[in-house]
Amino acid sequence: MPQLNPNPWFFIMLISWLTFSFILQPKILAFTSINLPSNKTITTTKTSPWNWPWT
């Protein structure tokens, strides 16, 4: 059964992961985010309980 032979597929997987890890990942991580998180204070809203008509 050729599916159990790891010879060509392991090499292809290894090369693709190394390509992603060493070439593509630093290029992707070099992009800066446009919407940087700001230091806003979190405002809590006061919620009122719901008055159910059948209780």
UniProtKB/TrEMBL annotation:
Entry GO terms, CC:
mitochondrial membrane; proton-transporting ATP synthase complex
Query: InterPro entries of this UniProt entry?
Result: ATP8_metazoa, ATPase_protein_8
Report the transmembrane regions from the record. Answer: 6-24
- Chief localization class? mitochondrion
GO BP terms: namely:
proton motive force-driven ATP synthesis
Tell me the compartments it is located in. Mitochondrion membrane
Membrane topology, from the record: Single-pass membrane protein
Q: Write out the GO MF terms.
A: proton transmembrane transporter activity
- Name listed for the protein in its UniProt record: ATP synthase complex subunit 8
